[in-house]
Write a structure and sequence with these properties.
The structure is a homodimer. By secondary structure, chain A is α/β, with parallel strands linked by helices. Chain A has 7 helices and 12 strands.
Chain lengths: ~270, ~270
């Protein structure tokens, strides 16, 4: 095999690692890929780690032990997160996006891959240490962000539905009280999750917390613990939500008036 | 600024380019990032292009002209695509996933980030040249794959809904005939797309093509042309679909029996 240069090895490794966030690659797998010795790969990884730090490209970590190796996590620094979310808030604030009933039109934001991927990375940064086994969301608008978060965490996405579907097999159905006080149903295929797993709930919008509460109770039915509940946007009112410990990237207030005005601000913890 | 080495510049560029698929980065932006001359960046890019080719990491292309620069496309070779899809087919075939009514349980596959990202890259590879302005899908199970395809294409994802929503503003609603012959509705916010744009339709499942046909007609209402319709899985029967030119990654046949058996095969074009 023609000798492969360091800059080629490092570039290729960067792509492989970042294409599979949070997955552990053994040193051996890279040794085979490049026909290099372990000591050479070790040096490459040290240099790559420094490069990632230097340019704020996420973190490259060595994991020790039998199942050890190297992994990439697209962590976002607090400064970078604040900048990204502040820019989003500026885009969303004002009168143009306010809809009748005090709703905000922001579906476009929730479906732009660049924006969604950055939001997913910001959320994953918060929850890496709690090691969720999967991300849970409710159909529909939160699915892209939940998927991006699951991608950054290297875990599957599980989607709860409003009703059971013929193509999902036997399912667990629960009832929950929605924000408007109506009784709604939520359904999840029995095949979707395993007992004793850890779930991270990610959704687009938090108002009263009825749907989020429903998802928490759905997980209880599966004997799965919820290690966090995260949202793109939470309304300032009501202050007390029906779940505790919820974390949102942005807060929404609608100022009444002609025209009404949306005031969207970054969350305090950013 | 301390002199930044080639291997550091190339690794950082690889991450930046692949974090924003199909986006054009000007040479100047990299010159600023690294404090390097244009000629240096040009050499770096040539080396990066060769590295990407050598290790089948996608393609790095120089785009000439006023709005020119360099971009990364996560293209997948036909051989790699066939291997990925064949492995999926093996996983999905057999009796374990067959549900009453001849349905197949594969929601798990549709929500695993690694798998979904590879499927999105395979589909994007097909459609780069037609330059869609956005990807359109219908809620719900196809959203992750449609998002991954949109991400690889560097364009927004647009999600059509079953009914109009309070948080979407004024919408266009159409009726369409579903596979089972019932009349269904499909809705899309007026704000979601612009006239004269080009749409790529991506969804999880194609059986009769009623829903796909609905999406094509929805786009007609917006004066948007459809440059392709792509699916994760299409049933072998009925052979004639209600849309023409549909492309699927896999074909599904259910063999009756005790137990019934799913035969999932890679599409011919792979």
């Amino acid at each position: 095999m023609e000798k492969i240069r360091r800059n080629e090895r490092m570039s290729a490794m960067m792509r492989h690692l970042s294409a599979h966030p949070n997955r552990i690659f053994t040193l051996n797998s890279f040794c085979e890929m490049f026909g290099s010795a372990k000591s050479t790969m070790s040096e490459d990884i040290d240099l790559l780690r420094e490069t990632a730090e230097m340019f704020s490209l996420g973190s490259i970590e060595t994991v020790t032990g039998a199942a050890g190796g190297v992994r990439y996590r697209p962590v976002v620094s607090p400064e970078a997160a604040r900048k990204i979310i502040s820019e989003l808030c500026a885009e969303l604030s004002g009168s143009e996006r306010v809809l009748p009933g005090g709703f905000l039109y922001y579906s476009d934001i929730l479906s732009m891959p660049d924006t969604v991927n950055r939001m997913g990375e910001i959320l994953a940064t918060v929850y890496y240490d709690r090691e969720p086994d999967f991300v849970l969301t409710m159909e529909t608008k939160g699915i892209p962000v939940a998927f991006a978060t699951a991608n950054a965490l290297g875990v599957p996405l599980v989607i709860a539905r409003h009703s059971s579907k013929v193509y999902e097999g036997s399912a667990v159905n629960i009832n929950y009280v929605s924000g408007s006080g109506s009784i709604e149903t939520m359904s999840l295929s029995r095949r979707a999750v395993k007992e004793n797993q850890k779930a991270l709930i990610v959704d687009d919008f938090l108002k009263g917390g009825g749907t989020a509460r429903g998802m928490v109770e759905l997980m209880r039915e599966f004997n799965v613990s919820v290690i966090g509940t995260a949202f793109v946007m939470a309304t300032a009112e009501p202050e007390k939500k029906r779940i505790s410990g919820a974390r949102a990237l942005m807060t929404l207030k609608i100022r009444e008036g002609e025209p009404a005005e949306a005031v969207v601000t970054p969350a305090d913890w950013l």
